[in-house]
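Protocol step 6 of 9: fold each sequence in the batch and record its structure tokens directly after the sequence line. For illustration, a two-sequence batch is reproduced in full.

Sequence one:
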Amino acid sequence: MNSPMTTIPEQLVFELPHRTAMGLEDFLVSESNAAAVALVDRWPDWPIGAAVIAGPRGSGKTHLANVWLKRAGATPFEASAISREAVPAMASAGALLIEDVQKITDEAALFHLLNLVREQRLQILLTTETVPGDLAIALPDLRSRLKALPLATIEPPDDALLRAVLVKLFADRQLSVEPQLVDYVLVRMERSMLAAERFVAEADRRALVLQRRVTRPIAAATLDVLGY
């Protein structure tokens, strides 16, 4: 797609931070993510104090994980930072959020941590981009333990959810757009939450440079530059 607005004037653009609404009431629910929302809603009535949310990058895992983090008073950790030496201090937090389990490097340490969760009746939520059964885990005991945890999977978004996400992302940036523009973008963009985030961020930047509202020509140029 070629657009006369692909090249924009060279101007200074000050990237002001915008606040993304991150409460559960701000999370858009559809069939694709309802199971994950229900999982967070059920806490603290989880049968074993541990659960997994799986979904692709940009699917809303972090949003839901942060909702649980605040409710549980949990401490966040990246799976890649887990080590045998760090496990006792991590367990002392009482409630833990472990993000991106697919990036784990010390499998024995994570297995030890999960044992402590069970023995000490701690609370833990893990997130991963793929379901535990598809993770490249070499340690059989860890693979078995992860597969046994309650799992909620976030599926690819449907049209209704993507449309609502686009509207919300524009609203988070205090941008008003016409419904027809959202529909125009929806049928042309990549089908993912991450693509929606990238589109809105770039459209906002271009509109700021041009000092205009987000119009169809700006949307077309944004789709073009992002390769959609």
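Sequence two, same batch, same settings:
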Amino acid sequence: MTKGDYFVVSRRYDSKEAKRIIKEKAFELFSLHGYNQTSIADVSKASGFSKGHIYYHFENKEKLFVLLAQNSMHDWYSKWTDVEQNYSSATEKWYGMAKHVLYNYQTPLLKAGEELAANPKSSLESVRKLYELAVVPMSSYRSIFIEGIECDEFEKGNVDEWTALLGTWLGGLCQLTNTQPLQSLEPLFEQAITIFLSSIKKRGN
């Protein structure tokens, strides 16, 4: 490796590390203070990097936040795939998914995301990207339904409708996490799964 090559590698490493630190500090600030009360100046002070440096890597506050929200949803999915292997049937996976949704709905960025979506100054593109994050859990729901049909646990039916219905139901129940202890809600989430699956399970299963 030549001396010039060394400096190129070093500079690339520093840039990557800078982005990591900026994202880490921005995540902390958005989680603590929300979207509206966090500025690029705040992120600059917390991270130790200039505002120009932050704009260079992320363009603006909206895009920085959307990236963090996307990473957060990726973490949600990764956590699910880690526990999914513990369940041997689609029915068991649905009860596991209900618990996963319950305990992972209140993400640190949830309130900040709601603020961005409700802010009239937010770009339509940023709001659209936030709403598109719902595709991740909905795709997971759909996969469980398909597995249940293929393994003869569930009757054949309109998987897209089932996904929309049960996904909306779970989303509605998640609003209770704002006012009630999570553990106290477990029976309610389980009951929702029991009621829904009773309408699609194959007779004899």
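Proceed to step 7 once all outputs are recorded. Observation for sequence two: Residues 61-205 form a domain with the Tetracycline Repressor; domain 2 fold (CATH 1.10.357.10).
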